[in-house]
Amino acid sequence: MGLYLGDVSGKGLPAALYAALAVGTLRGVHKTGTSPHDVLATLNRRLMIRGMPRRHTAIQYAVFDPQRQELQIASAGMPGPFHLCARGASLWSSAAFLRVCSPRRTTKR
């Protein structure tokens, strides 16, 4: 299961069209089964080919594996995810790995 969160620069119709381009491209890329980091790298390459001046996007992409109870997160242009729990809060690196239902948190940085 995948989840993405994003923002584009600008406003109005030009920004909406760029957002549609980014989301459409991301939908095509994320179905390849590659890691979130590789998906965002591929998305970046494909958006750069379009060469739209003064248009930028920031995206976080996460994939949850219910069988392994793992969440992989990659971020491009946004701070890493903010993790809240009963013991406190922490800001993760832009590429994080979480064993979701385990009492211990493990991250790859």
Structure description:
The chain is an alpha+beta fold and 109 residues long. The chain contains 2 helices and 6 strands, in the order βααβββββ. The strands form 2 sheets. A 4-stranded antiparallel sheet has the order 1-2-3-6, covered by helices on one side. A two-stranded antiparallel sheet has the order 4-5. β2 and β3 form a beta hairpin. It is globular and about 45 Å long. The two termini are 22 Å apart. 17% of the residues are buried.
Major sheet summary line: 4 strands, antiparallel
Query: What is the molecular shape?
Result: globular
Mean pLDDT: 78
Stretches where pLDDT is under 50 for at least 5 consecutive residues are 99-109
- The number of helical runs is 2
Total beta strand runs: 6
Strand order of the largest sheet: 1-2-3-6
Structural class: alpha+beta
- Portion of residues in beta strands equals 25-35%
Order of helices and strands, N to C?
EHHEEEEE
Rg is 15 Å
| Helix fraction bin | 25-40%
End-to-end gap = 22 Å
Topology record:
Blueprint: E1 2-8, H1 12-30, H2 36-50, E2 57-65, E3 70-76, E4 82-85, E5 88-91, E6 95-99
TL;DR of this structure?
The protein has 109 residues and is α+β, with helices and mostly antiparallel strands. It has helices spanning 12-30, 36-50, and strands spanning 2-8, 57-65, 70-76, 82-85, 88-91, 95-99. The chain has a four-stranded antiparallel β-sheet with strand order 1-2-3-6, with helices on one face. Strands 4-5 form a two-stranded antiparallel ribbon.
Q: Keyphrases for this structure?
A:
109 residues; alpha+beta; four-stranded antiparallel sheet; two-stranded antiparallel sheet; 6 strands; 31% helix; 33% strand; globular; disordered C terminus
